[in-house]
């Protein structure tokens, strides 16, 4: 049975990611039963209104009873608490996985609580939008996107195959790496961009010489691109910052060093240094488009949407 | 005659902006004659192949003879040279404008060369994409976008009205401010975002611990958003950095100060500070979407385009 199907799936957390999984599972018929649990009573009620699962329970501990697959989709800082709650009720042979953006920390938080005979396999689907909550999810979110697994040394290969088959059924492309390397890669491709975006939006918001309404009015000239990432879920991103600290601080240090170099070139009118960098970065964009990792349409194809307004 | 029409328009520079103006002028019938001039012989030939004007001349000095409106669309660092070349041949009563992203520097470069009886009115349409060259332009680029004028104290009100009517005919929304304020506003909404984007792409490109192919492969998790701005024209942006130095250095200093605060909060695990900032920036995004300055579709509506691949 490696077709990605499970008899009973428990989804702990039903935000953008959890609810997208739920929609795919339903649409693709990947499970007979889908038990949904989340801490907030309103969110749980909303999940039920949306018909995302087959059962809705407030307690994570209750939700995982009899489940063959448990997917934990909570802010990474809540991982240990969830692991502690669910561990007594996990079924022998069950697979427990997560979707967290940091892996070393999640492993440190969850692995010690996993009972013998339960397969804990950390995972991270690189998918999402700047929206959050159960209404923000949609079927097909994971299609064509990478899902990275960071298996532990003693991970059961068969269990890993079953989990990979599940994510493949959702349309993901599968990758594997060790947790420390994952955390470094994500620090540069995801965490640093988000932190920089949050920061620049904060800087603009704080200016006295340029009003907030001017910033908003003229934002299409570049600034608005950053506001998308800076609109991402605050709880999720606070936890990412706190739980991938070392890799993030390393990337921030390099970024700041490079920025100081650029700033000096501007101050001293060193046009060649600026031109060299600006030419090099253009090539990176080209590679991303060629690799099919972004659309080639100018302005992300936004002009067509703008014009419709 | 304030319908935005001119008998003869000369376009000096025919890149993304110049060629978009040309396309609009043709489509809307805003001029009887459109004379195009640009430094590069290949670009001039390309403009002719695309049928962007009614005449094509290598010399800017020749191109402006008899023109009622001259639009200079060149990298801001080339403004003085163009002003020097065209000034002897400008017709009395002609309007000369530009589209440069910095205004104090362009005024300092061009105004001293403008003959008596010629109306020099600096302008800046806030429009563009990350693409460049005459093939990148398109009709409708300026529709719904702001065009900011920074008139000089002695600007003739009638000439200003005529120029505003022209840009209004292209679909622009018109604004006016003094050059110094323009340069500060643009430093935060446009120049800083581009510089930061160039910088982070450079940092990622230089890493030893994470390969370039990993950066590209996983770029959809945030990084790719920055690569769009970082793919903008290197010459244009080198010139912007060199010609709006003071305002840019001021914004860079504030950005770095704020980033140091954020970095410290990450190092010391001060989750509340992070959460506060991340919540505040989310509200800025909301204001931009509400003001109609960006699309509300998650991920800039990119998912729909991604899925088509």
UniProtKB/TrEMBL annotation, chains A, B:
EC class name: oxidoreductase
Pfam families: PDH_C (PF20463), PDH_N (PF02153)
Keyword Ribonucleoprotein: no
GO BP: tyrosine biosynthetic process
Keyword annotations: Amino-acid biosynthesis, Aromatic amino acid biosynthesis, NAD, Oxidoreductase, Tyrosine biosynthesis
Gene Ontology molecular functions: NAD+ binding; prephenate dehydrogenase (NAD+) activity; prephenate dehydrogenase (NADP+) activity
Domain of life from the UniProt record: Bacteria
Protein's pathway: Amino-acid biosynthesis; L-tyrosine biosynthesis; (4-hydroxyphenyl)pyruvate from prephenate (NAD(+) route): step 1/1
Enzyme Commission code: 1.3.1.12
Domain Prephenate/arogenate dehydrogenase: 7-296
Catalytic activity field: prephenate + NAD(+) = 3-(4-hydroxyphenyl)pyruvate + CO2 + NADH
UniProt keyword annotation of Transferase present: no
Family membership noted in the UniProt record: Belongs to the prephenate/arogenate dehydrogenase family.
Xref: NCBIfam families: PRK07502.1 (NF005694)
This protein's name: prephenate dehydrogenase
Species of origin: Pseudorhizobium flavum
Lineage: Bacteria, Pseudomonadati, Pseudomonadota, Alphaproteobacteria, Hyphomicrobiales
